[in-house]
Design a protein that fits this description.
- The protein is α/β, with parallel strands linked by helices.
- It is built from nine helices and 14 strands.
- The strands form two sheets. Strands 8-9-10-7-11-12-13-14 form an eight-stranded mixed β-sheet. It has a six-stranded parallel β-sheet with strand order 3-2-1-4-5-6, with helices on both faces.
- Strand 11 (about 235-240) and strand 12 (about 245-250) form a beta hairpin.
- Helix 5 (about 95-110) runs antiparallel to helix 9 (about 305-325).
- It starts with a strand and ends in a 6-residue tail after the last helix.
- The structure holds NADPH dihydro-nicotinamide-adenine-dinucleotide phosphate and 1,5-anhydro-D-fructose (NHF).
Length: about 325
């Protein structure tokens, strides 16, 4: 069992605590939460609260899971590494490419496993799509279109850090868009150029409520992604190849049990197939993969290149949205 401390007990930290509390692979020892008012709720779950991060970085724990706000990730990763702890950092790994490089390099140098909260990679439909791409089933890849909306599970308002430009730049990029760029980079490699626009259509949030991005990959294929902060839940993944297109429709959020995932594979009107997948807990699957890598059972399936490049692309998208220029990450 991996002796773990969870850092942050906000919306997402509570999701993770509920998942790991009764998971055989994890011994969740401590929950770091500066808001003392939350400590009763932590105790009610049978967990032990501590008020500062330093209190968690003791011999009692081998690894930390960071669900702190985005601007804390760099320093929290580096402090974990300095204390010799494996670290799972929620997305975005960093708000800057330099920060991501420093975190990845520090973990590598110390021989510690760095996990990142991009759970969509563990969805069965995405795993199937990855196999199909590797086998060349779609032919030459021309283009992808991905869209992800915020599903209003989290209350957002103008005072939330999630709607501030400094901590959640380019509208929904750090909430939803970053999951999409993670997938695209893992499929197609290095991004050559990005052009992005943001808008504020409804709420007057500093960061805006929609971001729309065009990408071109060094391999030549193109992609568009949309992340929308204020519309009912929507999650679609399309990949268009010369022989087949694939559409994955998530009727539910990856974080929320229930609902269905369908995958349509279309070669022609006479040759197409609809595959249904049950919802699975991809968030726990990701954490378990990280723990398995720490135990030496299997490598964690993210490369350093992918983790760093995703943040280089985030930085380029933010710059493009601000300047109106095409940016080459
Ligand atoms: N993989 C995924 O799909 C998801 C990932 N996330 C990621 O999880 C992270 C947290 O998001 P969310 O839970 O919604 O945010 P919240 O603001 O709800 O929670 C953040 C928590 O971190 C605590 N915190 C703040 N500063 C520190 C600190 N210095 N040390 C320890 N804890 C601290 C906060 O305490 P206090 O309230 O006292 O400030 C709060 O409990 C974000 O990075 C987000 O991107 C979120 C949702 C889904
Ligand atoms: O930070 C986040 C907030 O909400 C999204 C959609 O609900 C999550 O997937 C995301 O990671």
């Amino acid at each position: 069992m991996l002796r773990t401390a969870l850092v942050g007990f906000g919306w997402w930290g509570q999701h993770i605590a509920r998942r790991l509390k009764d998971n055989d692979g994890f011994d969740l020892r401590l929950v770091v939460e500066p808001a003392l008012a939350a400590h009763d709720a932590i105790r009610e779950m049978g967990l032990t609260p501590v008020a500062t991060y330093a209190e968690a970085l003791t011999d009692e724990v081998e690894a930390v899971i960071l669900t702190s706000p985005n601007d804390q990730h760099d320093s929290h990763v580096l402090q974990a590494v300095a204390a010799g702890k494996h670290v799972f950092c929620e997305k975005p790994l960093s708000l800057s490419a330099d920060g991501a490089r420093a975190s990845v390099a520090a973990c590598e140098a110390a021989g510690l496993v760095l996990g990142v909260g991009h759970e969509r990679r563990f969805e069965p439909a995405i795993l199937r799509l990855r196999e199909m791409l590797a086998a060349g089933d779609l032919g030459t890849i021309m283009h992808s279109e991905l869209a992800f909306s915020h599903d209003k599970l989290i209350h957002l308002d103008a005072t939330s850090w999630r709607t501030s430009k400094a901590m959640a730049p380019a509208a929904g990029m750090t909430q939803m868009g970053i999951h999409l760029t993670d997938l695209l980079i893992s499929f197609f490699g290095r991004v050559k150029s990005v052009a992005a626009v943001t808008a504020d259509r409804s709420l007057g949030w500093e960061t805006g409520d929609v971001v729309s991005v065009q990408l071109q990959f060094e391999e030549g294929m193109t992609a568009t992604l949309q992340a929308i902060l204020h519309t009912p839940h929507f999650l679609r993944t399309h990949v268009f190849g010369s022989d087949m297109w694939v559409e994955i429709r998530n009727a539910t959020h990856p974080d929320t049990p229930g609902g269905a995932v369908t995958m349509e594979c279309y070669r022609s009107i006479d040759d197409n197939e609809m595959i249904n997948f049950e919802w699975t807990d991809s968030v726990t699957a990701n954490l378990e993969a990280w723990a398995a890598a720490i135990a030496g059972r299997a490598p964690y399936p993210y490369t350093s290149f992918e983790l760093v490049h995703n943040i280089e692309v985030l930085e380029a998208i933010v710059q493009s949205a601000e300047t109106g220029q095409v940016v080459y990450p």
